[in-house]
Amino acid sequence: PTTTVGKSTNIFWQECMVKKQDREAMLGQKGCVVWITGLSASGKSTLACALDHALLSRGKLSYVLDGDNLRHGLNNNLGFSAEDRAENIRRVGEVAKLFADAGLICIASFISPYRKDRDSCRQLLPAGDFIEVYLKVPLSVCEKRDPKGLYKLARAGKIKGFTGIDDPYEEPHNCEIVMEIDDGAVPTPSEMADTVISFLEQEGYLPAKQNSNNCSGVHTNIDCEG
């Protein structure tokens, strides 16, 4: 039967012969979304690219959805109001869902400041297929890095609604992986990528090298640019 979804009327869901499980079997991996969240300059893009490269080196197929990159195309009609931010993340969540259904490991790198928007993306996927990675880097550290000069502009009042300055960031409550900065030894981006890969192995998304227990709630140190 046809149905109505949002403003779309008389639409029908078309089933295909090839299923997600068929694509996963061909790729030798399980499709999922690794959602990297945190303040600007917390290292999201650096981790996303390192993880993407590490998976490729293992013969696994992934794809990075980057916040700035998608605003060059799919989301170039959106600004940074609360409403536009919500729509930005809604679209990304739907795209990420498609990548996961194709059997890919989709790496989404977005500030995604509002908890309800991230939770809405989680609800689009089967249980366990949304892996939230929180880069818990203090605002003072991110502002000191400021590789794009955005914090300086925000402090000068030239950028309005900037997360962490005059717009809030809501920390995750129950994310799968937390990476924190520490005064002690700090891992390289590749070591952080390995932390995520270990989680994927242990949760069955990649062929595990060895058996280990569930690592939900993993914590590690972080110190990277981006």
UniProtKB/TrEMBL annotation:
Entry-linked InterPro entries: APS, APS_kinase_dom, P-loop_NTPase
Domain of life from the UniProt record: Eukaryota
Biological process according to GO: hydrogen sulfide biosynthetic process; sulfate assimilation
Pathway entry: Sulfur metabolism; hydrogen sulfide biosynthesis; sulfite from sulfate: step 2/3
Residue span, APS kinase domain: 30-179
MF (Gene Ontology): adenylylsulfate kinase activity; ATP binding
Catalysed reaction equations from the record: adenosine 5'-phosphosulfate + ATP = 3'-phosphoadenylyl sulfate + ADP + H(+)
Entry keyword annotation includes Isomerase: no
The entry's keywords: ATP-binding, Kinase, Nucleotide-binding, Transferase
EC number: 2.7.1.25
Enzyme class: transferase
Function: Catalyzes the synthesis of activated sulfate.
Similarity comment: Belongs to the APS kinase family.
HAMAP family: Adenylyl_sulf_kinase
Name of the protein in its database record: Adenylyl-sulfate kinase
